[in-house]
Amino acid sequence: MPSKCVYILLDNNNDILYAGQTNRGVDRIVEHLKAHYSNKIKKIRVFDIVNYKDLSKIECLIKHIYDTPLNKNKAPNKKGHSKCPICAIHKEIENELKSIFT
To answer: 23, 51, 60, 63 - which has most CB atoms within 10 Å?
Structure first.
């Protein structure tokens, strides 16, 4: 099990329910199996991420693309880490709309 990874939890239709990241290895993923929604989880896929600074960006991109229903929070944006390009576009649009309507 890789220590720096992004993981996805899938249901029986192979729809992505949750995307997460960990640098603690398997312990973080096991926590999900104890959660109240664990009966929906049928598969877990783990992706080893070579560059630690890309963990948050990859997690965030998965959340944007697949609209994961069990994710409540945005991926952490750590200083010095790669930024999510979709979040950057959303922020740009938000700023432009604020300038128009304020």
So the answer is: 60
Euclidean distance between CA atoms 48 and 6, whole angstroms: 7
> Which of 77, 76, 57, 53 lies closest to 65, judged by CA?
57
| Whole-number Å distance between alpha carbons of 101 and 29 | 43
Task: For 75-102, write each residue's pLDDT tens digit.
Answer: 777 788 899 999 999 999 999 999 999 8
**Which 3 state secondary structure label does DSSP give 97?**
helix
| Adjacent-strand bridge partners of 18 | 9
Residue 2 vs residues 44, 48, 51, 56, 75: alpha-carbon distances, Å: 14, 6, 12, 16, 19
Question: For 17-75, how does the pLDDT look when each residue is reduced to its tens digit (9 = 90+)?
Answer: 999 998 877 888 888 888 888 899 999 999 999 898 999 999 999 999 999 999 988 87
